[in-house]
Amino acid sequence: MSTAGRAGMIRIGADLEVNRMGYGAMRLTGEGVWGAYPDHDHAIAVLRRALELDVDFIDTANSYGPETNEELIHEALAPYPEGLVIATKGGLTRSGPGKWERNGDPVHLREQCELSLKRLGVEAIDLYQLHAPDPEIPYAESVGALAELQREGLIRHVGVSNVDSLQLEVALDIVEVVSVQNRFSISDRDSLEVLLACERHELAFLPWFPLVAGALEANEVIDHVARNHDATRYQVAIAWLLQRSPVMLPIPGTSSIEHLEENVAAAAIRLSEDEMRDLEAVA
């Protein structure tokens, strides 16, 4: 069984190093990312299986559930093994299933960070990410709130999410940003400019929606490459991400142990230069 270690390692900031195949825990919630996952024991098993596969980077957010996802991670994995990095996010609020509202108010961000600390059962959050810019709040103020939390020792590292390249530069002027989480996949490269900025600044890039929520459309090129490697098109999509950039840290999510194992196995796929060139032309 291939493990996350086959993807190689990536540094996040000066003191964190993880395997370059993470796990996004959002799918372990109810429908519409609302409420707890209906099969509690199965959700626990998925998280524990991820660690057995050497996944040592898990991404969550206070808005997943809301709250239930962080609580689930604590229940399943605490006491946390040495080297496990848990990243969470603040800055989105929820009013119902499938509904997401932005709140980048510094007071709100502090409150939510403190609540995430309690739910995760940690004294400091390894990586705390601003989930999205709030058009009602100057972005610098929101980022500044995370910088203050870092100075107080409540978070170790700061990340940003759903940003454009200009917003990233604003954040970098305020605090040492170590990661960016934007939507990116073999079929959606709107954040390419941000990815290139991450390469220049040596920031980890966490692509969310990397498998288009399991709805990656059939494509002659992708399917041909998949047959070459006796793989699925989703495994090819993950392998492409890993080889697309050295700062890429995929975090595919799933509520299925079978799919989790399949996703992690993609770390062992090595695409040829010709295959990478052909896949580059897909989007």
Key words describing this protein structure:
39% helix; TIM Barrel; 283 residues; alpha/beta; 7-stranded parallel sheet
What's the short version?
This protein is of the alpha/beta class and about 280 residues long.
What would you say this structure looks like, in words?
- The chain is α/β, with parallel strands linked by helices and 283 residues long.
- The chain has helices spanning 40-52, 68-77, 106-120, 139-151, 165-174, 192-201, 220-228, 233-244, 257-265, 273-280, and strands at 9-12, 16-19, 23-24, 57-59, 85-90, 92-93, 101-102, 125-130, 155-161, 177-183, 204-208.
- The protein has one domain: NADP-dependent oxidoreductase domain (TIM Barrel, Alpha-Beta Barrel).
- The chain is built from ten helices and eleven strands.
- α1 (40-52) crosses α2 (68-77).
Average residue pLDDT: 96
CATH domain class name: Alpha Beta
Number of domains: 1
Instruction: Provide the CATH topology.
Output: TIM Barrel
**Class from helix and strand fractions:** alpha/beta
Q: Which regions contain 5 or more consecutive residues with pLDDT less than 50?
A: none
Helix/strand order:
EEEHEHEEEHEHEHEHEHHHH
Indicate the percent of residues in helices.
Answer: 25-40%
- The Rg value, from CA coordinates, equals 18 Å
Structure summary, number of beta strands: 11
CATH superfamily: NADP-dependent oxidoreductase domain
Based on the coordinates given, report the CATH architecture.
Alpha-Beta Barrel
In what range is the share of β-strand residues?
Answer: 15-25%
- Strand numbers in spatial order across the main sheet: 3-4-5-8-9-10-11
Overall geometry: globular
Largest β sheet strand count, sense and barrel closure: 7 strands, parallel
